[in-house]
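yo

u said u wanted the structure for the complex thing, so here. seqs first:
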Amino acid sequence: MSSVLRVERLTYTYADATVPALKDVSLAIEPGEFVVLAGDSASGKSTLLRAANGLVPHFHGGTLSGRVVVGGLDTHDHGPADLAGVAGSLFQDPESQTVMGTVRAELAFPLENRGHGPAAVARGVEEAALALGIEALLDRSTHELSGGELQRVALGAALAGRPRVVLLDEPTSQLDPVAGDELVWLLRRLNEEWGTAVVLSEHRLERCLGHADRVVVLQDGAVACDAPPRAFLDWAAEHHPALLTPGARLFQRAGLRPTPAGVKDARGTLRGHGLLADEEAIGAVPVEPGSADPSSPGGPLAAVGRLLKRSADDGSAVAARDLWHELPGGRTILRAVDLRVAPGECVALMGRNGAGKSTLLRHLAGLQDGTRGSVSAAGRVALLLQSPGDYVLHERVGDEAPAAALAVVGLEELADRHPRDLSGGQRQRLALAIVVGDGPPPAVLALDEPTRGMDRVDKGDLAERLRAAAREGAAVIVATHDTEFAASFATRVVLLADGRPIADGPPRDVLAGGWYFATETARILGGEGGALLPEEGAELLRRRLQTLEVRP
Amino acid sequence: MTYRRLASPLHAARASAGALFCLVLAAGALLEHPLLLGAVAVAVLASAAGAGVLGELGRTAKYVVPLAVVFGLINPLVVREGLTVFARLGEIPPFGQVDLTVEALVYGGILGARIVVVALAFALFTACVDPDELLKLFRRVSFRSALTATLATRLVPVLARDAQRLDQARRSRADGGGEGRAARTIILRAVASGALDRAVDVAATLEVRGYGATHRARAAHRPWSRHDLAFLAAALALIAVFAGSAVAGIGSFEAYPLLRAPVAAGEIAAAIAIVLLGLLPFLDRRGIEP
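structre next:
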């Protein structure tokens, strides 16, 4: 059988670069394979995908040696438009991936470009919409869709006409856990039912490793590992522990084998060892008696009472009271939100796309005014918005933020660099320095989805900085979809749904009992003992192993 | 401003007919006679009301009217024609000796009005003509012009959202990010420098969706609806009125040295015809639901 994608000794250097982005890369993807591309930020994953769809070199220029053959078409001779018939592509940012005004037109666009007749286009649109469950969106305008919906539509456009291989560059990075998991399941289903080969670049490996046939690791532009998921995890344990999934780290720390590729795999092994607690008892960690139900805002009298309360006397760093945000002629984004965050608290704000997280943060920072209710803060609220690049206004790092602030985030030596030459993690730190400044420390440090596209090392560094800010007295509030990251820094998790907090408590209460809003460790252990991180889970398993050993 | 399919005859018409109608209205700005130019402006506004997009045109007017006023005011400062002097301002650098004339002031007003009419006609076009359909239309004629048109139409809303985000980021800075005009300049510069990146992203997406492949897209057959025919007929009739007036010497206008804008039966008839032709296609509201 001929490979659907064959890369032979590919070396590529971008037009304005001195160091190659890809070095002597060779690999073959067979029809129907599900391959995960792993690696740190800037390891060459995106470039490899762009070489496979012809954007490299036809669109980006640069110097290329070696050969890439996609569905029998050599990228030397065929550009991206020709290759689109055999390779569908999906990038990170859904906003710049929709080029038509309606969903129907968006799905029809690639088919029409391939010269299909009206009947074939109509059928292709229906098939793609049904396969992705977006048939209800067909006549909606693309600019009305949420990020998750847009990403599905973009995937539909990539799959319309059934390409032989689909290339995806971190497609879940802007999606909530529910939409992210749904997208990966969808890819698996299309892979199995249509036989479409999938090449998926992803940082959150725990999300997709269980579906993968192979994992290809890129390091500094070269292939460092090409193996099935379990073998990859064994390689990562030895050569690149930052790539280990939480489940693999749990097993490694507990001294268990074989390394699991996914939750089902891990639970099977634990069950075999007798290490899984009675499944009947597994479920949500019971809420302690007396804790308030955040989803019950009370009647009109309670609402009036909340409005009458004053902020300064409760010691909160920031407080929202009965906060509503209703769009004129549109939907309600926030509904009677009551939230108080104390100095030194680390709060993870979680919820589906469109739940109101970003809007709430903007209200807390004073960037938006509510239609009802109030917000008060004990001092300045420093808000870091989703894209650190949006803060870059000058030509020099040193002109963006004061020297003292740059020193705090470890960028003082890069003061003469152009901000756009910084890596993703460095740019995030620069944005942090810009919003924090060198004046009195902010009373509240709020961050909106700061871990998008970050590798595990950068996430760990950010979590440590947030904890340090909290130790110095700032209230830290982070809107995030990343449950592992939330578990690593938060002392409290607030779950928003439809503009209201529906759960509010310590991470072990909120993140241990669910399925989507739960860490991989919690999913493996079924929420047992409130263990969220591999270290906590491993401790639990080690104790259980000791019990089993001493039992006669 | 973006296109949204509404229940109106202009939205229901095919893109070619709707676009022609709007472009002919924009071409009406070539008329200089104040009565005829006013009639074109009324026709544009009446069409916008008929299409339910008067609010969108209002938003455009907010930006364009001040610009038109500036044009109107600059003209008497820089033009040294006209015999009816109403103010002698003396030596004003860099204009030199400035005598303000009624003729230059009126002509400045006409220039401003023409700018407003063109901008409003294009706003009507943007709000009522389906860009996807137009893109397909262009694609069959010229790949390059269609690509340019697509990039332009896609980029405007994307850049508008970028500007909103950048402004929020500016307001989140510890140093406040500046205020007023300086802040707006900073945002404008940042959006402009990011526009190239955005254009590259959109162009890359077009490429990987097969745009510009060697295959020729086949158009679906679509029967001509009553609205297609009505707007095509109105556009052609407007062209006939404009051309007929010019040939018959109706709507002649001279600004200098003395104002001359005769209003006779011909001018009145032409003005009424322009307004009616702008309105008539909107009277039939059958089959306009999306």
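Chain B touches chain A through 52 residues (CB under 8 Å). The CA atoms of residues 144 and 212 of chain B lie 9 Å apart.
cya
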